[in-house]
Design brief:
mainly alpha, single chain, 11 helices
C-alpha cells in the first residue's frame, strides 16, 4: 500500500481500516493505525488529521472505566467546526465523532443540518444523513430521551432504501423499536429489535450485533 502513489487510495484504505476495526471492536488493530498513517506517503497535514480521527475512534471505543481524554475531545470538536460551512466532508466528520458530544449539543446541530438539507439527496448524502440520524437516536436512547425520536425516524424512513443503505436502515428499525419497547414494554417491539440484531449477525457483524444486544438490555 505504501508503494502506491495514489494518495486518495491510501486515504480511503486508512478510513476503511479505522471503520472496520471500530465496528469489529478490534481495539488492538485500531491502536496500530496511527503508526501506519505516520509511515505513509500522505502529506503531513493530512497525516495529522487522520491520526487525530483514528485517536478519536479509540476515544469513542473506551469503556466506562477508562479515563476520558478531554483535550483530545476538544481538539476533535474544534476540527469539525474549523470548516466554515456544512459540506459532505464536514458532515462525515461530525457523524463519525458524534459520540464525543453531549446529547443536547448534538440535538441542536442535527436540527440545523436537517433544516439545511432537503430532498432530493445525492447517494452519498443519503448515507451520511442516515448515519447522523442513527447516531442521534443512539445518544437519545442512551440517556432515555424520547423527545424528537419520531421526527428523526420519519425523516429516515422518507429516504428510499437501497442495498448500500441496508446497515443504516436496519439500525433505524432497531432504534425505533427500542424506543417503542422502552416506553410501552410491548413484546412485539422487543422481537423487532431482536430481528434487527440477528440481521447484523447474519451479515457477519457479530461484534456489532453483540453491542446492539447489550445496549438493548442496558
Amino acid at each position: 500500500m505504501f508503494d502506491s502513489q495514489d494518495l486518495a487510495k491510501q486515504l480511503n484504505l486508512f478510513h476503511e481500516m479505522i471503520v472496520a476495526a471500530h465496528y469489529n471492536g478490534d481495539k488492538d488493530s485500531l491502536k496500530k493505525i496511527p503508526n501506519l498513517i505516520e509511515r505513509s506517503l500522505l502529506p503531513e497535514e493530512v497525516k495529522k488529521e487522520q491520526i487525530l480521527i483514528a485517536r478519536g475512534y479509540l476515544e469513542i471505543d473506551k469503556s466506562s472505566t477508562e479515563p476520558v481524554n478531554w483535550k483530545l475531545r476538544e481538539q476533535l470538536r474544534e476540527k469539525v467546526f474549523n470548516f466554515p460551512n456544512w459540506n459532505e466532508e464536514k458532515l462525515t466528520l461530525f457523524c463519525n465523532l458524534m459520540p464525543l458530544y453531549d446529547c443536547f449539543s448534538v440535538n441542536l446541530i442535527v436540527q440545523d443540518i436537517l433544516k439545511e438539507y432537503k430532498p432530493p439527496f445525492s447517494k452519498e448524502l443519503k448515507r451520511i444523513l442516515l448515519g447522523i440520524i442513527c447516531n442521534n437516536l443512539f445518544l437519545k436512547l442512551k440517556i432515555g430521551e424520547y423527545e424528537g425520536i419520531d421526527m428523526l425516524v420519519t425523516i429516515a424512513d422518507a429516504i428510499p432504501s437501497s442495498p448500500d443503505l441496508v446497515f443504516y436502515k436496519n439500525n433505524i428499525i432497531f432504534y425505533k423499536n427500542m424506543a417503542l419497547y422502552k416506553s410501552s414494554n410491548a413484546t412485539k417491539y422487543l422481537k423487532n429489535c431482536q430481528k434487527a440484531i440477528e440481521i447484523c449477525a447474519w451479515l457477519g457483524m457479530e461484534t456489532y450485533a453483540q453491542h446492539m444486544s447489550e445496549f438493548l438490555e442496558g
